[in-house]
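Progress report, Aim 2. The chain analyzed during this reporting quarter is listed below.
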Amino acid sequence: MKFFGLPLFILLSLPYLLQANLSSDYYSKTCPEFEQTLVQIVTDKQIAAPTTAAGTLRLFFHDCMVDGCDASILVASTPRKTSERDADINRSLPGDAFEVITRVKTALELKCPNVVSCSDILVGATRSLITMVGGPKVNVKFGRKDSLVSDMNRVEGKLARPNMTMDHIISIFESSGLTVQEMVALVGAHTIGFSHCKEFASRIFNKSGEHGPVGMNPKYAAELRKLCANYTKDEEMSAFNDVFTPGKFDNMYYKNLKHGYGLLQSDHAIAFDNRTRSLVDLYAENETAFFDAFAKAMEKVSEKNVKTGKLGEVRRRCDQYNDYKG
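Predicted structure tokens for the chain:
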């Protein structure tokens, strides 16, 4: 059977054929200083701003879960077009994450102009920063092109929100080709970083239980209420996702969930849902199992729906297309 002149088996294999163009040494000849330059800049940035790792990891997910890792999240909006970056769920993405990508891109453009894509920089920076804060080694490949489209309207429904039901969250991950097991491993990214008070305010300020939110340690809930008392006046108020080791990539996030220290409603849900509870228990007990699962899931996400060949471009600036006329 053929469609548009191509055998059916070729069409079904097309996403994997595109992925086959990626390789770990993609820039070894065209930009031999790629790795060294990237690692040095992200290291310097992480030392200067310790929240960079968590911010960049979040930026990676918000890019890759929407039509693949293509740097569409980095494109700035114009008077005629609102980009993904300004979708409601993306407005709180941290500036440090965008800045580190810009720094790497600027340095690489001086060394090897028009060679390294912004999407590869984001993937490489995320990989390096995870390891830098104690996480597993993620084996990533390179050769992506940057998207030719960034549309705010393509974001909704592709990123999970803290107040969603577990059914809804699972369906979002499954629509991206990710299993429940991979979802639980990837949510372990909450072991670093923070969440703004507005993302969990409805949980801690609503009288959902006699002593506070159901499933949350009462003393923890009380401290969060103190911390976020004025969150409606100061939208930047936030709390660490992992209250005990917020700057270290480890399995403490899962241990916290078992003892009522889950910050978000989705954290509580994943700890007690019958489809996910056993995995939370496993990763809480076995950090190696978590690291292995997280690394494999990250590799899968990083290679899904990548743009290669004429499906994209290598942007000269990460925040605008090459044909942008101003």
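Strands lie at 2-3, 6-7, 194-196, 238-240. The chain has a mean pLDDT of 91. These observations will guide the mutagenesis work planned for the next reporting period.
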